[in-house]
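Weekly puzzle thread! Below is a chain. First person to post its structure in token form gets bragging rights.
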Amino acid sequence: QVQLVESGGGLVQAGGSLRLSCAASGSIFSINAMGWYRQAPGKQREMVATITTGGTTGYADSVRGRFTISRDNAKNTMYLQMNSLKPEDTATYYCNTIVNAHRWGSWGQGTQVTVSS
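Winning reply:
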């Protein structure tokens, strides 16, 4: 299995944008599905967006229309473009492989996103 490392987080004002990257140690071509997740203080980890090798995407209602997930197999990287950021988007963001509905790969350190008012 490949190792994934998140990057691109930071501090941004409300209404601003950030682009998160998820770099894999190897090819992601054979990985059927991958996703972005986030966890805010005092809350459970939640799904933000998912994408399959065929390009099918899914989004949480809270981010639909603002966030865009994509993957570049040639660069072995997955991205999350976040626009129109809101303070409630503040969380640690993680990327992971999706084996099935109830099984994921190992969770890494994530990247912190902080949105100020």
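Puzzle host: Confirmed. Bonus trivia for everyone else. The longest strand covers residues 91-100.
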